[in-house]
Amino acid sequence: MRKSAAWAVRGAAALLTVAALAHTLWNGLVEPATALLFGTLITVGELARRDHRAGHRAEGAGHPPAEDRRPAPLASAGALAYALLGQNAGQPTHHGVLQIVAVVVAAALAGTVPHVARGRGPAVGHLARRVLTVTFAAVCFQPLHSSGHVAEHVGAGPYLVLFLLFLLGLTALCDAVLAAALAGAEGGRPYGPLLRDELRAQTGIGSAICATGVVMALGVAVAGPWALPVFSVPLLLTQLSFHRITSIRTTYRQTITSLARATEIAGCTPPGHARRVAALSCAVGRELGLSERELAVLEYAALMHDIGQLSLVDPVPAGATAELPAAEARRIAALGGEVARQTGVPPEVAVVVERQADPYREQPVASRIVRAVNAYDDLLGARPHPGGSLAVLEQLRLGTGQDYQPEVVESLARVLARGGRDRVVPALPG
Predict the structure, then answer these.
(1) SS3 for 177?
(2) Which of 183, 242, 312, 373 is most buried, judged by most C-beta within 10 A?
């Protein structure tokens, strides 16, 4: 069902694109100077975009925050402004919905060529969302403007601003719905938490995009198209600031990943154990519907979950803490929490690390996930378990009375059934 929804979104965007380009090529551009200026702005916005997905893939376990999945805010704002453009220097405009879509698509494709050449082009879903959201905004505004209903019922004063903001609010909701549907199809996460994350992201950079789109449309309506570069500068600076913040976040994650490798370098844990536990924990967290903030905490805690072993005089054999006595496992977890606090990670990360060995009813959700996934990787070991993954899962199920939460174990089973941890197990009934 999710795959069908994703194909429906992409198919609708493709049909709109073909119809818009064919219509514009057949009839020619209306007001070509304005179209060229907005197209140039969208192209520049796409050229200035930065694809954060590659960095997250390189790090192995991360899931990019929703605001990082909007890497071209200037292009988005320019596209929305063109969709809501009703006047140009006091004169009514006559470009229609199909021309708007054609200009936006052509400009976006022109701006993505250098990124594609470097192997960092945007996902098809990103372009499909752009087409459908711009079409939605244009369909909501252009027919009302052309028929005179906007001038008659709304006017040209503050009510027009409120009306445009209302339309962009609906457009933002449309974009969030589409983004959640596409992300759910690609990653298999539950739709509800995805939609919540996308709506939350709209209050950040999404609000800046909508506000700038309104300002651009109103500025061009009064001062003409040459006001467009002036109103685009604030969002361009905001985009550059987001790039710097994202670079800092990426460096922070890489630092934690390097710190987590200290246990491997010291011979306390098998190579790749922390990264495997982090990647699989994030997959289980997405399956359980954790928010992006919760997933970030989970990822950091999973990477650092064995850091307490650096304080041990006698290392744990093979670094496997899953079968240690409860008191010893809690002591190592408490040591890990203290070490984590010294690194400057958020306090909730240290809490997850130090409580990972507690009975699951006393743990936060992230600790329950880390404990179950760590036990799975420990029991499976570097070499195949004699009974395979199914035998390890059954061993975890036997511990659901006190050690592991049943919902977490079953979510882990579903993730493994889809191919997680490089070992696929048969899908469970129901």
Answers:
(1) helix
(2) 373
